[in-house]
Amino acid sequence: MTLKVLTTVFLLLISVALQGQVTKYPVTWKYENQKFREFIQKAESVHNVKFFYKEEWISDKAVTFCGDSVTVAQVLDASLRESGIYFLINRHGDIILTSGYMVRRIETPAGVEGKFIPSVILTDSLKSRQVTGSMFIDVGNPSDRDKPGAVTLSGYVRDENTGEPIAGVSVFNQKLSLGTITNSFGFYSLSLPRGSHSVQFTFIGLKEKTININLYSSGEIDLGMSSVLIPLKEAVVSAQKDRIIQRFEVGLENISLVNLRLLPASLGESDIIKSVLSLPGVKVVGEGSSGFNVRGGSADQNLILLYGAPMYNSNHFFGFFSAVNSDIIRDVALYKGGIPARYGGRISSVLEITPKEGNRKEFAGNAGISPVTAHFMIDAPILKDKCSLILTGRSTYSNWIFRRVNNAILQNSMASFYDVNARLTYDINKNNKIETAYYLSNDAFRLNSDSLYKYDNNIVSVKWKHFFSRRFLSIVTVNNSNYQYKISSERVLQDGFKMAHKVNSTWFKADFNWYPEGRSEMNFGADVIKYSIKPGDYTPSNDSSLVIPHLIQKENAVEAALYFDEKYTITPFLSVNAGLRFSSYFALGPADIMLYDPLVPKNVSTITDTSVISPGRVIKTYAGPELRLSLNFRLTDNSSVKINYNRNRQYLHLLTNTTSISPTDTWKLSDYYLKPQIGDQYALGYYRMLNRNRIEASAEIYYKSIRNMLDFKGGARLVMNENAETEIINVRGRAYGLELSLKSTEGRLQWTAGYTYSRILIRSISDFREELVNSGKWFPASFDKPHDLTVTFNYLISRRFSFSGSYTYNTGRPVTYPTGVFRIGGITVPIYSERNAYRIPDYSRLDIAVSISGNLKLKKIAHPHWAFSVYNVLGRANVYSVYFRENNNRIKGYKLSVFGRPIPSVTYSFDF
Amino acid sequence: MRYLLLIILCLSLILVAGCIIKFTPEIEEDNTLLVVEGMITDQNMTNKIRISHALPVGKVITPVPVKGCRVTITDRHGSIYNLKESSPGIYITDSTRFRGQVNNRYRLNIVDGGKSYESYTMEMKPVPPIDSIYYEKVLIGEDEFGVPIEECQVYLDTKDPFGKCLYYRWDFSETWEFILPYSVPNYRCWKSAYSGKIIIKNTSVYNQSRVDRFPIQYISNETERLKVKYSMLVNQYSLNEDEYAYWERVKSVSENVGGLYDVTPMSITGNVYRLDDPDVPVLGYFSVSAVARERIFIDDNFIGLPNYYSYCPGDTIRYPGPIPNLNISAWLIVDNSNGQPPYRVITYFRECADCTLRGTNVKPPYWDE
């Protein structure tokens, strides 16, 4: 899938290592054209100085001539400039080189002579550490070493290849079991006692780094981390010591590309977004269905962000593939519990897709083919070290297959999709970075009928990141996201029609992040979203069509929010994250609002009046605060408890009354009648590292109450309906659950196991019996699946072969059964039970896969990968839905399975 | 959407299928809701209202009639017509005394013991005549010898120049002649069937009340319908908007199921409700429609029809020899089809020897030669 490893190191901070020492080593010999090594040897022999370095850093270097009668420090400064190697002259007068990070020290005030940490320890450590290339670094002012209290070590962690910050890096001190993780800007802040420490930086897919520090007072270390070698990527998954203990968030799940490639893929396509669906607390209606449900929320309650913009349809091909090509994705984070205050607008979850950073050094790429799709990726630096472009494309060739199958139904059908991603990043200077991105996806299908369905997503985004100072930065984002679908039919010219629906949003967002000295981090900002929805345009598709154009009035609205959020470490054992988001919403004219007789259910025939709202006038305002609160108690070195409360408000809704959401569902904004959905979630989590920190265990419980959810009257017509409020039933929801998970990500056998018990019950609220489902009683929503068990494993047979599998079990979802029948018009019509009174059979599936990489030669033109997988090995015909149809004057039940047999597939791809 | 399965099947390139398994749901609920089905028309005919109870699932459907109801129809002017129970649960109008009128409004009242039911007041909309019914041959493919195989699509055109009728419903009864390939007394018969599906069209979205090339019936070659001669009598009904919406819902729960995007099932109530307790659902619909009729004959030669009697011949005996051990469950037929001396053929399938088993040997009065 990707990029080649760069062995060179990218210089990020163009600054010179500080030399706080008075020690001067004059260069008394002729050093012009001298090799670096010779220069060091000469210096060591002339002066009583020792150099510490790693041989490979200097092997082919020569010194830069910078004049006569200079000091060793001046020569080093000139020679190492922009090489990524830094140097430091410590108090002994020894010269220490560091690669990838620099040491910053606060100057000792003149005349203050601090005592020193016993040199024995230091030297011993140095010797032993030199083998691995790690160094001891002095941080802070040595005179402060005897002062009381803990101090903080902070800084940015960046990718050496791209210079981009890395979020989620674990920063950990093994001995004290203290740690933290970097935030989304790569910034970390760790509170430690003064003294000598070893701090480990780990992140899955990156080489682990350990630095040794003498911590005298608060100080900063910036660190560069590099990827593991790519051709071996599957094999060298470094142990991710994902310290869940340190996280603030309850209910945050991360999946990175590296984890993903270890899991068996369905239909030969490894799909990062689909893999999110196997996480605890996430449910799908059935195999290959679009949309997902997080902790009892409906499918429209998930905010899916790509390039910071919302995606309104995240699926291709009826939901069998996700709409974003995994080639462009670095990782995916799913917030199902503690949603940070910077996000809003959906009440169940936020799924943020973080795109891959472009390669700023050299050209790389990847291409692949699976039974259904072909895809490619190109990753190219436009300006070396400054600007890079990633371009990906993916398309299916299913139509080509359809035309070759001798089956009338298939020949009369088509289904195709493609998607394109382009992303350009440009570092203007040290403090300003700009990135622009474009995304387009398109689907078209016709299922043995004359109606052609088409839908597409379009996202354009510009992001500007500005550093006011090292500890204060802003990100300004402007994006536009557009989703539309069209249905057209031309079977009979006179009946030819086109029907179109469109949702468009323009988003302006400014986020500020400030890390003041000490133990807090602050985020604040504002966002404004302008929505425009075209509910439905029904127009003739040709000149001879008799169709009367019918255009439903557009909906317009503005959503605006302000937020402030602070993370504060009260003691190393107690930290708090408190956020407040104030969101407001204005539904805007022009609009004709129907007024209904309040004494009877809303119905077209009970309209009493129309209120005309002129353009730009506010129809209805909704506003309210959203509190986001979490507390993290560290109980012991390897366990913690977190408590979280969250409120979210949602103003955009999807009108759907099918089992699984479909691409032709209609989006609708809150308006005069439709109130915002409000969700409150309370969660409690317990986290613990087991078996000498090899197994990560967690247990979370949650309770959620949802107001103003949507349900629909039986047989509701939701497409092309001007009076959608007459079909909508206001529903209250309550969800609760327990999520248990175990994760072992070290060693040759890596595995995860998760079990969830969860319920989602809903109840309709209305003054009229006609608008009550199941007479207003609580009943399970159609995605209520109480028991859910998922187990995955990956076994590394050798560096080239790996074997993986995953098993899923869950309770069947609720369905409505017919309890009786009657005949009318010559057909038999079922009468149904109370809604969702029965359940389909339980679901169980095992997938396995073997992945093989080509040989391990680094200098090959292309590095091939083969993946063989079998989906549903047990061949169990899992029931997707049950339905009832008349057959010989009887109503017969039928169970439909989507994948009733094992499905093998092969994928070939190569990196170049 | 149900073709999706087939598509997935192909995409996987291997014989992988979604599959469908039959099952009988276990349901203990008891359902004795009242079902009212009936129609009054503008034709000079007897109108029927059928009153029965709903039935449990999974049993053969013979509706349980509701006997002894008092059934009346009230029109716009307040005139009341009594209906008479002609057979259990079937209440009829007297064609000499009652005939629906276009633009009049009607309401149905039912008294069943202590319970009273009433329908909404329904207006009889006018209906235009059917413009034309015509058919086209459809080439569906070739058999293994390269012989084309044809089937038949029947279309309907209609229009209401006055734009009064916006919602249409059709049903039809089809009749076809079939001939057994043997000389038996009952070799030529006619068989009839009722459309048994909901055929509706909404023209309110067009700027004219006009229906063109509406595919009213597709005749496949699986039955003998295309073999000899086929006829179809189409009834065209005018509907008001409420009734159209009713049939649309019935259609969606009975037909649009079994796919990936099933609509949440629902119970459908019509335009009849219980007076003292409107929350008790009443099923069925009291239709008020004007009717137009049109008949079409299809007497054409379709290529590639299969042999519908390939299973028939049993044993052949040279005529007129004696037949040993002939028992009661075998039938004798005479075959002289290929000009040879006639043979006596024994068949164990009675329908090969007697067409009245599947149809009637009485020629329908409208059947011209």
Report the principal-axis shape of chain B. globular
Which regions of chain B are unreliable across 5 or more consecutive residues at pLDDT < 50?
A: 1-17
**Count the strands of chain A?**
55
Number of domains of chain B: 3
Q: What gap, in angstroms, lies between the N and C termini of chain A? A: 9 Å
Q: What is the number of helices of chain B?
A: 3
Largest sheet of chain B: 6 strands, mixed
In the predicted model, the low-confidence regions of chain A spanning at least 5 consecutive residues are: 1-22, 106-134, 229-243
In percent, how much strand structure appears in the residues of chain A? Answer: over 45%
Explain this structure to me?
The complex is a heterodimer of chains A (912) and B (369). Chain A has 912 residues and is mainly beta. Chain A contains eight helices and 55 strands. Chain A has a 22-stranded antiparallel β-barrel. Chain A has a five-stranded mixed β-sheet with strand order 4-10-9-6-7. A five-stranded mixed β-sheet of chain A has the order 13-20-21-16-17. Chain A is elongated and about 110 Å long. Chain A starts with 35 loop residues before the first helix and ends with a strand. Chain B is mostly beta strands and 369 residues long. Chain B has three domains: 30-119, Immunoglobulin-like, CATH 2.60.40; 125-309, no CATH class; 315-348, no CATH class. Chain B contains three helices and 24 strands. In chain B, the strands form five sheets. In chain B, strands 2, 3, 4, 7, 8 and 20 form a six-stranded mixed β-sheet that branches. In chain B, a hairpin with a 2-residue loop joins strand 9 and strand 10 (115-119). The longest helix of chain B is centred in the C-terminal third of the chain and has 14 residues, at 241-254. The model of chain B is unreliable at 1-17 (pLDDT under 50). At the A-B interface, helix 7, helix 8, strand 48, strand 49 and strand 53 of A face helix 1, strand 1, strand 17, helix 2 and strand 20 of B.
